[in-house]
Amino acid sequence: MDSFLFASVCLEPLSAVQHQLQIALCTMSINLGVSHLRCIVAVADCLSFTAAAEALNIGQSSLSRTIAEAERRLKVRLFTRTTRNVEVTGDGREVSTYARRMLAAFDDGLHDIEGFLTGDRGSVTVACQPSIAATFLPPHVVAFRETHPEVGLYIWDGLLETALIAVRTGEVDLAIVATSGPLSGLQQERIGLDSFYCAVPRTHRLADKDHLEWSNLSGEPFIAFGTDSSIEAPVRRALEDAEIELGPVVQAQNVGAVAGLVAAGLGITAVPELVLPMISFAGLAHIPLRPTVQRKISIVQLPGRRQTSCAQAFIDSIRNAPSDSGMQAR
Known about the structure:
Blueprint: H1 16-27, H2 34-46, H3 49-56, H4 60-74, E1 79-81, E2 86-88, H5 90-118, E3 122-128, H6 130-147, E4 151-157, H7 160-169, E5 174-179, E6 187-200, E7 212-213, E8 222-225, H8 232-242, E9 249-252, H9 255-263, E10 269-272, E11 285-290, E12 294-301, H10 309-319
Parallel strand pairs: 3-4, 3-5, 7-11, 8-9
Antiparallel strand pairs: 1-2, 5-12, 6-10, 6-11, 6-12
């Protein structure tokens, strides 16, 4: 459940000057620029027009004109000036306090905008399958956070079709998915390949093989993924190409269920390399399958969409990352 932040308001008695200023703010149209505010704060801090002008790196005459203009627009006297010193009036103290707060917020906002434009701030939302989120993405996220610590990363993991819909509707900036074919109407950039393995109980007769042909699965009881899974289609096609018939088939919808059924001795299965760490709990043996069947790991974007600087920085970070030793390079 989302958490909500409730803010309380503390009401304190207003001083006479504060009261007059609030009335003034409500009854007049104030047209002060950032330069006016900076000059007011500088003079209030330095108590010297000469020192304030040097701090602002402007001429003293220019500073004096800006203060005079601010006083004219506010219709109050901010400073009293003699040949020896400068004193802040009551109105000047209150106005400089407000000005200091406004400048702090303004400068913070500019800093945020600059960070957003350079890709150092902002947020990136990525859709992906659970196997991508659990095994492929983490090292890339770690590397990106080291160079962009103030960028928020949001990972949506779910079924392939859900991830692609999120890209098409603009709910996410991009998707990183494993597919077995082209994606209609989307920009797809391959960044890796994911090969299939046969997973069997360690007591199974095939467990000690260096590799297996798809034809070696003939007649074996088989634990299959459901049709909603991106694993089902390439496995089905590979078995069809091998022209074999499996033994009894049990279908399950998620990786954990498939691994548990295999571990119970109800059959063997075929899974992509990215899934192997997710089924390690079952203690299965996994053997490379030949001929090699691969899913393409791709960055998927909406064609023509202009990415924010931070989203583009994340994409570039993945493109430029060293190839994983356990994953075939693009």
